[in-house]
Design a protein that fits this description.
With about 140 residues, the protein is of the alpha/beta class. The chain has four helices and seven strands.
Length: about 140
């Protein structure tokens, strides 16, 4: 028999926890469920996550200037809304055609990649796009 007291302090004997008890401890752990519930409550309280503002790449800005295309706030808002709609539908690299111009947009990075005047679109080939939205 071993001495369960060292310097008058009782040391309990600790044995390995059986797998059955370990599984019961894991299943009764509410931490994982609480994290999901907390995230849902946080999302509901804060509302939908805001997407970062739409960016115009240097290349697109250069094309807008070269082609004398004016992007006013109305056109910019149209593009932002188009990107949001494309994101919901799973678009990644998309062609957005407005009444003024056509834009290639990288939806994942929220960026306008290039722009072309709508009147000059005839006979142009648009490659590496997975979706198109006409607005």
């Amino acid at each position: 028999m071993t001495n369960d007291k060292i310097n008058n302090i009782l040391i309990p004997q600790v044995n390995k926890i059986s797998n059955k008890k370990l599984d019961n401890l894991k299943s009764n752990n509410p931490t994982a469920a609480n994290k999901d519930d907390f995230q849902k409550l946080l999302d509901k309280t804060l509302g939908p996550k805001e997407q970062p503002a739409l960016e115009i790449s240097k290349h697109a800005a250069k094309r807008l200037e070269e082609r004398d295309l004016k992007m006013d706030s109305n056109e910019f808002v149209k593009l932002q809304n188009a990107v949001a709609k494309l994101r919901q539908k799973g678009g990644r690299d998309s062609l957005v055609i407005t009444d003024k111009a056509a834009y290639i947009v990288d939806v994942n990075n929220n960026r306008v990649v290039t722009a072309i005047d709508k009147t000059e679109m005839a006979e142009n080939v648009f490659t590496k796009i997975d979706s198109t939205l006409v607005i």
